[in-house]
Amino acid sequence: MWGDSMEQVNKKIAERLNKLLEAHNMTQQALADELKVSQGAVYFWCNGKKIPRMDKIDKIAELFNVKRSYILGLDDETQEEAQYNWADKVNNILNEEHKTTDIRQLQRIFAYASKILELPEDKIKQITDYLDFILAREDNK
Asked: For the whole model, what pTM was predicted?
C-alpha cells in the first residue's frame, strides 16, 4: 500500500468495501445509516473517488468484523478466512499419517484457544505476541 499511488489505494479500499457489502448483503444506504454519513459519501468510497476517514474505517472494520489492515489492503484475508485457513492447517495435522502429537495436548490447546477468543482484542494481541516470541526463540536454538 505504501508504494501505491492514491488512486491505487482508493481502488483497493473500494474493492474491499464492495466485497464486504456484497458478502453481508448490505446496501450502500444501509452502511451510510450505520456510519451516520450520507449515501453519497459511501458511493464515493465504493467507487474509489474518496477515502473514508480513519475513524470511519475503524467503524467499518468493527461492523464487518475485519481488521483495519484488511480494508486498507494490507491483509489479503478477512478474520473469517484466516480462521478457516487455520482450521484447514489443524485438520491437515490431524490427518497426517505420522500422528506423533498426543490428542490430549491438542484438546488442551483447543480449550485454551476457545477461551482466548473470548478475550478483548488487546489481550489476544499480548498472547499472540508472546507466542511469537517463544516460537522465534525456539527457531533460533
From this structure: 0.55
Q: What is the pLDDT of residues 34-72, one digit of tens each?
A: 999 999 999 999 999 999 999 999 999 889 888 888 888
User: Which burial class, exposed, middle or buried, applies to 71 when counting CB atoms under 10 A from its CB (0-12, 13-18, 19+)?
Assistant: buried
Q: Which three cell numbers stand for residue 101?
A: 502429537
In a domain, 127, yes or no: yes
Domain count, the chain: 2
Instruction: Give every CB contact of residue 43 below 8 A, 6+ residues apart in sequence.
Output: 28
Domain of residue 84, residue span: 79-139
CB-based burial label for 134 (10 Å; 0-12, 13-18, 19+): exposed
